């Protein structure tokens, strides 16, 4: 059975650029939140040619900042190049093919995804190197994957496994589908209290041996996610991460005799501890490639990642938050309480409440103001004083891009989110 390594060259340019470019020809209408009626009936390209500004859009609204996106893209690409590691950014953060293309153009050699629906979006846009940071067991999905692999020699795909039973089920489904190419898999190592992944090295080696015995699979390395085991950068949190990564390195060492002599992958690294991943896992063997999967770095935030990012902790030039929420005061029923027209359906809240940053009511200090709660369609803003009268529009800093993008199918990109009336220079389409 034939196979193609995840790291090998496909002879293509990462993804189908024509399909990404065709998004500019998509007609605009009422389906897209906050889009002004003046855009209805126009294509994205035609609407942008009219040079719209932020004031043309309604609230609630999520926007991106072009300069921050560019800064973050270049900063991470340079950091990975200097560290000598590969990057397959997690596409589930944005599910935006145009942003995936920008990441590939900046040097990423693939895109990470989490499940079958996301994989199908990637294939619809011709992404030719995918790391699935999960175990794919759905028989219909595996049959579809087999057809994709057999029909496209340039498609390089790698998945995870964490049990002999998952190996058996994958092998059975691929055999039933008549798969002609092997599916590459990484043995996933987990940790106590974590998410998926084998919990001990001996069992992990049994899984690796099961992969070697399955004719439809190829043992391509090891993988895991340290971010499931810690949630801060305290000494305790970093110690837990280091201990886990050292176990992952030991598993890779023990699996050495099971590899087939071709290049193998060691993969870890979300957006919180990628510096520690490089410190602990950088290979000395030229046949091993370390691949990070950081996804939140591109958009970054004004909350969780602002505090925990390695580059905010001294590992390099810090990222900048590229996303903001915009909400209008629709009620002020009490002197120190204003209700905004943005809620859980519009803004992320799982890693912290939105942060008031500035108001259209005028310059002033909002450092004492805070959003204390979100309902489905409202935010409770307290202690903003004269900066939150009825009708004022507030810019909000947000935490956690992964749960911001899924609420929006079309996101305006501003030339300068700090400007008085920023121009909208792009519209990013998402596919959740």
TrEMBL record:
Molecular function terms from GO:
lyase activity
InterPro entries listed in its UniProt record: Ala_racemase_N, D-amino_acid_metab_enzyme, D-ser_dehydrat-like_dom, D-ser_dehydrat-like_sf, PLP-binding_barrel
Q: Where is the D-serine dehydratase-like domain?
A: 322-415
Look up the domain of life of the source: Bacteria
- Region Disordered: which residues? 344-368
Assigned keywords, A-Z = Lyase
Q: Which family does it belong to?
A: Belongs to the DSD1 family.
| Protein name (Swiss-Prot/TrEMBL) | D-serine deaminase-like pyridoxal phosphate-dependent protein
Q: Which organism is it from?
A: Kitasatospora atroaurantiaca
From the broadest rank down, the organism's phylogenetic lineage runs:
Bacteria, Bacillati, Actinomycetota, Actinomycetes, Kitasatosporales
